[in-house]
Design a protein that fits this description.
With 346 residues, the chain is an alpha/beta fold. The protein has helices at residues 14-29, 53-64, 86-95, 109-114, 132-146, 164-173, 198-204, 214-217, 237-247, 251-254, 285-290, 292-304, 318-328, 331-337; strands at 5-6, 42-47, 68-72, 99-104, 121-126, 153-158, 180-185, 208-210, 223-226, 262-265, 307-308, 311-312. The chain has 14 helices and twelve strands. The protein starts with a strand and ends in a 9-residue tail after the last helix.
């Protein structure tokens, strides 16, 4: 059944998250079944902040489902420079498309945007707290590596208090049982020495164990989730270097890690994640970025496909058969079909 809007990861239950995972599995296994799933539909991507992976993977996802794309990625190309409001702009986007994918710097703006629309709204990153499709990708990548998210020991590293990806991930992890949270937080001069802010604690809904460095945390975690140490938050270069050093992940450090450790990063990276980690088996961040396409394909189908006879369908029969394949084949059965990684070849 089609859903209305995806504004926050907590709009989804655990069951709905796992259904999207099953559909992403299905898309990866049977990509040819989905080429016309959104034929005749238009996706509008409106990015009021810069983006590489999120915008391009959403647009790739739409094209791979047979939809067409209208895109605004430079607000200087719109009439907002002449005083047109954001909400008038989004109202027009809704008239011209079947779904709006939007990114904006201001927290809470998605609730205002949705009231201008009669089509689904998908939040592609908002303020400092919400990024639901990134969280779906992060959870899916971890599940692929560990086979479960229950009982996972997660270490968060970098400028955590300034990262919407981290805050959204904490909310998403709250859907799973017995997850243990650890953190190495890089704070600017304004925040150095202060506790983790209330919004991080509220998002986590469970204790976060703080460590002085990644090295000190390494033996306590299964997954390192690294984000940028945001240079733009620091005016003191020496403090930035100190905070960066305690967060740096590099190959020599990983030599002391357990063999099952996974390293993820929502990207872009800077010096907090060394390129010498790229060829190691712990590197899951490029795979994580690649999973953005099938996950966002699954999201677009779920939010843009109208119910037909009690089930979602593309209207052409082929897409409906693809959707039902995930129900017919359990994840275990899919694994039995092949010992290889599920294909990333589109």
């Amino acid at each position: 059944m089609a859903l209305k809007n995806l504004i926050s990861i907590d709009d989804l239950s655990r069951s709905e998250i796992e259904t999207l995972f099953s559909e992403a599995d299905d898309i990866r296994r049977f990509p040819g079944e989905f080429g016309n799933a959104l034929a005749g539909k238009i996706v509008f991507t409106l990015f009021c902040q810069p983006s590489t992976r999120t915008r391009l993977s959403f647009e790739s996802a739409a094209y791979r489902l047979g939809a067409r794309v209208l895109s605004v990625c430079d607000m200087h190309s719109t009439r907002q420079g002449l005083g047109e409001s954001l909400l008038d702009t989004t109202r027009m986007a809704g008239y011209y498309s079947d779904a709006l994918v939007a990114r904006h710097a201001d927290h809470g703006v998605m609730e205002q945007i949705k009231d201008t629309l009669d089509v689904p709204l998908i939040n592609a990153g908002e303020g400092l707290a919400r990024h639901p499709t990134q969280t779906l990708i992060d959870l899916y990548t971890a599940r692929e590596h560990f086979d479960t998210l229950d009982g996972l020991r997660v270490g968060l590293v970098g400028g955590l208090r300034y990262s919407r990806a981290v805050k959204s991930l904490l909310v998403g992890l709250g859907q799973f049982r017995d997850v243990e949270l650890h953190a190495v937080d890089a704070a600017s001069e304004a925040d150095e020495g202060t506790p983790l802010p209330a919004d991080l604690a509220a998002a986590a809904r469970r204790p976060i164990h703080l460590h002085d460095s990644v090295q000190a945390m390494l033996g306590h975690v299964d997954l390192l989730y690294v984000v940028r140490v945001q240079r733009e938050m620091f005016s003191d270069v020496a403090l930035y270097q100190r905070q960066l050093e305690k967060c740096r992940v590099h190959r020599a450090l990983l030599a002391k890690a357990p063999p099952w450790l996974a390293v993820m990063h929502c990207l872009p990276r800077t010096d907090e994640l060394d390129t010498d980690v790229d060829p190691t088996p712990q590197n899951k961040y490029f795979l994580q970025a690649a999973y953005g396409v099938p996950l966002r394909m699954a999201v677009l189908r779920r939010y843009m496909t109208q119910p037909q006879g009690g089930a979602s369908g593309s209207g052409n029969g082929v897409g409906a058969r693809g959707m039902m394949a995930a129900d017919a084949l359990s994840r275990r059965a899919i694994d039995v079909l092949s010992n290889d990684e599920l294909s990333l070849a589109w």
